[in-house]
Specification:
Layout: H1 11-14, E1 25-26, H2 28-33, E2 37-43, H3 48-52, E3 59-68, E4 74-87, E5 94-108, H4 111-116, E6 123-125, E7 130-131, H5 132-143, H6 157-164, H7 168-177
Parallel strand pairs: 5-6
Antiparallel strand pairs: 1-7, 2-3, 3-4, 4-5
């Protein structure tokens, strides 16, 4: 039977009305073994690392479910959606990037277990105080493009103006050709 993990969630925080330092903490292994579920929204003001990357979002909607994977190992199934404003690296203008992702993370009891694993399974260290907000932010960061670009965009006006100016190396080239 699945349990709804209400005791470890600050639901006010999920609404964005709770204290700024409130956390969504779970005991990872217990959460997985009891097949618990949690869902909510994490406001963009809580996502400091995304903000440091100049990635703005009003928030991330998430659902995390605990359970056992195919090998009987504790795991977390994650579903998150959000809309992010990135900076296009071609034109330096805002780029709206919708994100919807599903992932499955195997919970490991030690770093050694993660380090010696020789497969493509995504693992995370299980602790008694896993911060779900940080975990969701990690997954969003990993899913966003490294070099965000519009499919089609015009170069920024300043870049066009710069390329139209003569290069100081043009004068050197002319001197070299005049020899």
């Amino acid at each position: 039977m699945r349990g709804l993990c209400r005791t470890v969630v600050s639901w006010d925080y999920c609404d964005g009305t709770g204290p700024e330092d409130a956390s969504l903490l779970i005991d990872g292994l217990q959460f997985a073994r009891s097949s618990s579920e949690m869902a909510g929204e994490i406001k963009g003001t809580r996502l400091k690392r995304l903000a440091d990357m100049h990635c703005l979002t009003p928030g991330i909607q998430f659902r995390v479910s605990g359970g056992m994977n195919e090998l009987g190992k504790p795991s977390l199934s994650i579903f998150l959606t959000g809309e992010f404003q990135l900076i296009c690296q071609r034109c330096l203008q805002p780029l709206l990037y919708p994100l919807e992702l599903e992932s499955r993370l195997e919970l490991s009891e030690s770093l050694e277990e993660i380090e010696v694993a020789d497969d493509d399974v995504d693992r995370v260290l299980a602790t008694r105080t896993m911060d779900v907000a940080e975990l969701m932010e990690d997954e969003a960061i990993l899913a966003l493009p490294m070099i965000p670009r519009h499919e089609y965009c015009e170069a920024a006006p300043e870049l066009v103006a710069q390329s139209a100016k003569k290069s100081p190396f043009d004068a050197l080239s002319a001197l070299k050709q005049g020899r």
